[in-house]
Amino acid sequence: MLIVMKFGGTSVANAERIFNVANRIVDSYRKGNKLIVVLSAQGDTTDELIEKANEINPDASKRELDMLLSTGEQQSVALMAMALQKLGVPAVSLNAQQCGIFSTSTHSNARIKNIATERISKELDAKNIVVITGFQGVDRNDDITTLGRGGSDTSAVALAAKLNADLCEIYTDVDGVYTSDPRIVKSARKLSVIGYDEMLELASLGAKVLHNRSVELAKKYNVNLVVRSSLTNDEGTIVKEESALEKMLVNGVAVDKDVARIAVCNLKDEPGIAFAIFSILAKNKVSVDIILQSIGRKNTKDISFTVAAGDLNEALKILEENKQRLGYSEILHDEEVAKVSIVGGGMATNAGVAASMFEALYNEGINIKMISTSEIKISVLVSEKDADRAANAVHEKFIFNEK
Amino acid sequence: MLIVMKFGGTSVANAERIFNVANRIVDSYRKGNKLIVVLSAQGDTTDELIEKANEINPDASKRELDMLLSTGEQQSVALMAMALQKLGVPAVSLNAQQCGIFSTSTHSNARIKNIATERISKELDAKNIVVITGFQGVDRNDDITTLGRGGSDTSAVALAAKLNADLCEIYTDVDGVYTSDPRIVKSARKLSVIGYDEMLELASLGAKVLHNRSVELAKKYNVNLVVRSSLTNDEGTIVKEESALEKMLVNGVAVDKDVARIAVCNLKDEPGIAFAIFSILAKNKVSVDIILQSIGRKNTKDISFTVAAGDLNEALKILEENKQRLGYSEILHDEEVAKVSIVGGGMATNAGVAASMFEALYNEGINIKMISTSEIKISVLVSEKDADRAANAVHEKFIFNEK
């Protein structure tokens, strides 16, 4: 089998951990697999390099920052190749320039456009384990780019897609994808398989196992992904295309406490008001999640919405600056809220899921502040103090009982 | 003017020093010069990376070691470009892959074969200061190589040669080339100019200002070199082709205390004995300097020679192992010796220089143990305790009085 194995920075933080990973790679190699290993920078290396850069010039061009940061992964891959050689297997490290991982020129947030496979194939044919820098590419000027958050996952999936790998293994510090956060929901259990779309919804809901870009890419090219622990031999969770028949009603319950609610009150009830509010926020890079519009008294309306807690102050400032233009009377906000969501591919074809969820919350005496639904997701906003109880109740209703 | 400026690792060891260097570069840029800046890795970075590699695999392939080490210079150039941008001048960093500094494939000790100038010229035309990684190249497989000791000087001179630069400035922690070591010889003074050949002899005699490979390259392509301090604005020393008329009788006096003398006694007086001794040593990478052969009693001869002090034990071991084959009676050795040398392009055409040197030593009552001469150099071996007095006496005779 041709397998892409991806390990994060924690897994290669020091010599001991590098050998742990190297031993796992050698095991797979000795089974006759052809291996591509994708690595992140060691431990805190990237943060340390960013600090060095900030000390010199916080406004340095992103091109130079990428030039600096890319050295982190290059060190990881060279050290890993050395460790593999020490264990008696042939290995060669390659950076993005050497592989030909071509990307857009958007430094610090580039997208992979294509991968030249000649060099990689040559090394695989020579029985080498090919150890490749994650997180980076080169643009058409031969300048080094980095791929932004979750970039190494994306590198791994892109390589698996381009080389038609049989499997893309993403090694992390958790042993798979869970039906909910085990720290909150006691009955949470590991999923043996999940669909791409459900994984995407879960990731966007705060299950930070895989970055969305890598899952989107896996979906697009139908790459068999496995999320598993670099510390155990557990089987992990397979992420793949699920047929409708296989779809579970609800795959997971996600809790996101990192949200805030804003209410803009007594807006004039005119066309275009909602557009005005959300286009101003979008222009200022504030992402809005659940939106709710209610009819107020005397030809006015209220618009409430949620933002990431970190964007709250920015959002309030923007709305304040545009008070005259928007013509509202006051703004309320609430940080003591949390979003509880259920995700499942089976939901789209199964009526009554929302009702069941609301019933579970009602039975716990939990008040719902806002509701948002999509084809495979239902989210509710509740008080932060109710969040864990809400998650447990919903998880029990849909997942624990189902088992 | 097109100028190549090279700074060593100490000059870019931290943010403060990087800005010191950056300010100097900006001064030159504002005078209208086109600038190529060549940098080494910061401070102890290279040593730290070697340590990391040794921890994992002391026998790692040199290819992987080069992959690892090359990140040091890449960090330097990115940080310097950021500092220059901070000071308001346009700058771009390039690694050896991006420049196209093509080398042989001898990892850890590669030679530059050619430099593709397109990218560099493009950046210079765009008014950018081009900051380039020293010490490294890429071979024809696109693998990263390093150039071995003094590699960054060599990178700078090679770039100056290929781009026809008007000047190649090598910045160090000394302010130029001296007629002798100022710590030993009180009357030592800075040379304003020295010829390539004399510089080569001085370098090989322990004046560790410029690595020989860079001087050889400068000579070959007639590159105007300047050695100057990165801490002061002193003019430094120009290294260039000198015409015979300009040649000083003696340019410098060098003292090397890092030597040891070995005497192999009572060898059979047969052809091939000297060859046998020195081929065995050469095969074991022991370099021999001054050689003296003397006729002994009863058809035997003695052969004495000097080696670097660090090679003494290895040399003795090798000779001991081959005692039977070489057929000597005993080996003597002496570490309490030093080599004092005078170097000068004018020597070749001026008889009596050796006699004058010996006279100066005789006047000081210093005994000469061995003598070696070349076209532009005379070396004598003396007791280590006499070395400083010998250097002063000879310096006074040839250089101080000449002034």
For the sheet with most strands of chain A, the description reads: 8 strands, mixed
The overall average pLDDT of chain A, rounded, is 89
CATH homologous superfamily heading of the largest domain in chain A = Acetylglutamate kinase-like
Give the oligomeric state of the chains in this entry, treating copies of one chain as homo and distinct chains as hetero.
Answer: homodimer
What percent of residues of chain A adopt helix (DSSP H or I)?
25-40%
The separation of the N and C termini of chain A measures 33 Å
What's the CATH architecture name of the largest domain in chain A?
Answer: 3-Layer(aba) Sandwich
- CATH topology term of the largest domain in chain A: Carbamate kinase
Number of helices of chain A: 13
CATH class of the largest domain in chain A: Alpha Beta
Secondary structure: number of strands of chain A? 18
Which chain pair shows the most residues in contact?
A-B, 37 and 37 residues
Shape of chain A: globular
Strand order of the largest sheet of chain A: 3-6-2-1-9-11-12-10
Number of domain units of chain A: 2
